[in-house]
Fold this protein.
Amino acid sequence: MSTDVVGIEGQAGQRATKWLWLVGAVIAVSGILFGYDQGVISGALRGIEDSFKVSTTTTEIITSWVTLGALVGALVAGVTADRIGRRSALLLAGGLFVVGAIVEAAAPGAAILVVGRLVVGFAVGIASVAAPLYAAEMAPAHLRGRFVSGYQLGITFGIFLAYLVDELMDSADWRLMLGVSSFVGIALIIAILPLPDTPRWYLKVGRRSEAVEALEKVDAPPDAEAAIAIIEAEAASDVQASWEVAFSKRWRTPLLIGVGLAVFQQITGINAIIYYADKIFDAAGFTSVADQTMATTWAVGGVNVLATLVAVMFVDRLGRKPLLLAGLVGMGLSLAVVGIAFQSLGDVQHGGSAQAASDAGVITLVALVVYIASFAFSMGPVVWTIINEIYPREVRGRMVSVATAFNWFSAWLVSQFFLTLTDSIGESATFWMFASFCLIAFFWILRYVPETKERTLEEIEEMWQKRFDARE
Ligand code: BGC
C-alpha cells in the first residue's frame, strides 16, 4: 500500500472518528432523556402534592404513567423507525419530549400534568428503541458494544443528574425540575440534525447513494463499495416483514432471548432501588433526610455512572456473556446480603441492640453499592446491547420494540408493586425474591444466550438461520 493511500485512509478514518463522536453524543443524550425522567420525579413529588393537594392514587399515576407512555412509545417505535427512519424517529422523540416537558412545567392542574407525563413517556419510549437501534446500525462491528452501552452511560448520567437536582433544589421548584428536561430534548434535536440515517436503513428503502455517503461519512471503511455490497446482499432478501413473520417459529429463539433478557433486567430489582433508594436507606437506619439523599445520589447514582464506564470499556473486549454472568453473581449475592441485613434489623426492632441496627445500615449501604456496580457493568448495558444486535434485519425494528415494551412493562410492575410487596411479605423476603431471580437469570443466560462479541450483524443473522435450518 503506498503512503499516499495510507494517508488518505488515515484522513478518512479521522473524519469518521469525528462523526462517530457525534453519533455517540446522540446516543448519550437519548440515554440522559430516559434517565433524567426516571430519576427526577421522586424529588418533585412532594412539591406537586403541596401545589395540587392530590390523592395517593393520583400521585401514583403521576409517577408511573411515564412508564405506560413509554410502553406505548416503544411499541409504535419499531414500525415508525422502519417507516420514517431511525433519525426521523429520534427527531420526533426529541420534539415530543420538549412539548411534554413544557406541558408538565406549565400544568395548571393534575390532569394536564398527567398528560405531560404521558407525552414525555411516549417520547422516551420512542427514543429507547430508536437510539440503540441507530447506535447498533451505525457502529463498526468492533465498536458496537461500546456504542450501545454508551446509551446506558447516558441513562445512568441522567439518573445521577436528576438525583443531584433533587438534592440541590427545593421540591417547591418542581416546575423548574421538570421543565429543565426540555433542554435535553433540544440537545438531542441539535445533535442529530447534521447526521445521516444509517446505511442499513437507506438500503432498506432503496436509497443506495445515500447509504454509501452515510457509510463513508461515519465509518469510512477502506472500501465503502465492498462494505455496502455486503449489507446490500442481505438487503436483497430483505422484505419488510409483517408481525406474523416476527412472531413466526423461524425467529422464535432470538425473540425469546431478547424478551427474556429485557424482563430479567427488571425483575432482578434495579428500579426498586433506583426509585426507592431513599426509602430503603431510611428503613436501613439512615435517619435524616439529608443522609438518605446523599447516600442515594452518590452510592446509587454516582456508582451507577462509574461502573457503567467500565462496561463501555470492556464490553467489546471481554464479551457479553462473561460480563452478564459475573454481574449476576455480584447482584444475587449482594441482594441476599441486603435481605439478611433487613432480617437482623427486624430482630433489632424486636429487642436487639442499637449497634446491630447501625451495622445493618452500613452493611445495606455496602451491599447496595456492590449491587449497583454489578448491575451497571452487566445487566444494564449488556442487555440493551444484545437486544439491539441479535435480531435479523427484516424483523429487527419490530422485535426490538417488543423486547423494549416488555422491559417497560416489567419496570412498571416492579415500581408499582415494590412498596406493596415490602409491606406484605417484608423487606427481607422481597430482596431474597430479587436474588432468586438473579440465580434463575444466571442459568438461563448460561444455557440460551449466544456470544455476539465482534460478530457483524450479518453474521449474527446467519447464525440464527443455520440454527433454524438444522432444527427443521
Ligand atoms: C434500565 C433502567 C434502569 C437503568 C438504571 C437501564 O438499563 O433499563 O430501567 O433504571 O438501567 O441504570
